[in-house]
Amino acid sequence: MGKDSSKKPLLKEAIKDINRELTLLKNGRADFKRQISNIDLGVYNSRNMEEQLKKKIAKLLEKEAKLNKKKSSTQDKIDRLSDKLNKIEKIKSEISDI
User: Fold this and answer.
1) Residue 97: its pLDDT value, please?
2) What pTM, to 2 d.p., does this model score?
3) Cα–Cα distance, 46 to 13 (Å, whole number)
4) DSSP letters for the chain
5) Largest Cα–Cα distance of the chain, in whole Å?
6) How far apart (Å, rounded) are the C-alpha atoms in residues 73 and 81?
């Protein structure tokens, strides 16, 4: 029995050490879980922002297409007016030659 009683303090100390290590590991795990949670939140927020930006880009592309169509239509009108002005100038020139 003498041997058992001399081992008890060593075993108690070993158990304390193991418990301290377990506590440290649990704290480390909790920290990692918090970090993962923060990263997950960041990814979620980034995805939301990406979706919002995609919608804005789509709206801008629609506006751009409408503006390009309007520009083309306006250019056609300018070209027709220019043709008419040239015809008028030609007629004017012909009339002044008479």
Assistant:
1) 78
2) 0.61
3) 49
4) -HHHHHHHHHHHHHHHHHHHHHHHHHHHHHHHHHHHHHHHHHHHHHHHHHHHHHHHHHHHHHHHHHHHHHHHHHHHHHHHHHHHHHHHHHHHHHHHH-
5) 142
6) 12
